[in-house]
């Protein structure tokens, strides 16, 4: 029963965190375990940053991950960084949900994320190199918007054009421009890659719009279209209707852990504007970034 589950969880917690145990006070480890055990009966939980990031969200997601069937990213892009240390091995994630380290856990990237596919493939290769088996456990929402290399160029142009006192300190990874494309309704979603002619039209339109403002933008349109047509063949088996998927999983009684990125004080609406990121990375973003009703989220750590 519950006692056996808690005993197993404690054993796993100690094993996965023995490296940390040498450096952390016992009381702190006990607090972390209590947090883990309180989610034992929770179907949907969210881990959100409550400050400016670097609160240890990735570590907590790793501690809790074995209890959940799905870990879902709901916002942000490769500007986020979650580092997890398991039995002395370090794993760094920017797009991949941290729950991927648990063999029973599926990693879902939701519609609120902006995805740079080359960075995503790099993380998959890192998992391969570190011996993590993930076949059939990575899912990409078809409404997820893409970050192109041209977005990264635009990110740099925008930051360089500002006065020193007005610079945001962007990561130059194209996150802001990708969200701008989305809001201005000329963004490109993963699902658009299914239709080569539609993708071509949308990509040519995007380049044309950006070149009106940034004439020095360097884009080999044909090469990019060919590259993304090839990328589509690689990700085709991973693409799902993430909104249907997560709500069907809920109806089936599966446990879902929502992994936030960045933090509330970086939220585009509630953070220290304008020194913020470009997404809603507080709890509201968990709802809109996955298409799950707020009434279904039973437990939240963070805001």
Overall description:
The protein has eleven helices and eleven strands. It is 41% helix and 13% strand. β3 (82-86) and β4 form a beta hairpin. With 303 residues, it is of the alpha/beta class. The model has no long low-confidence stretch (mean pLDDT 88). It has a seven-stranded parallel beta sheet with strand order 9-7-5-2-10-1-11. It starts with a helix and ends with a strand.
Architecture blueprint of SSEs:
Elements: H1 2-16, H2 18-21, H3 26-38, E1 44-47, H4 57-65, E2 70-73, E3 82-86, E4 89-93, E5 106-109, E6 114-115, H5 117-129, E7 138-141, E8 145-146, H6 149-160, H7 175-183, H8 196-213, H9 221-235, E9 239-240, H10 242-251, E10 256-259, H11 283-288, E11 299-301
Parallel strand pairs: 1-10, 1-11, 2-5, 2-10, 5-7, 6-8, 7-9
Antiparallel strand pairs: 3-4
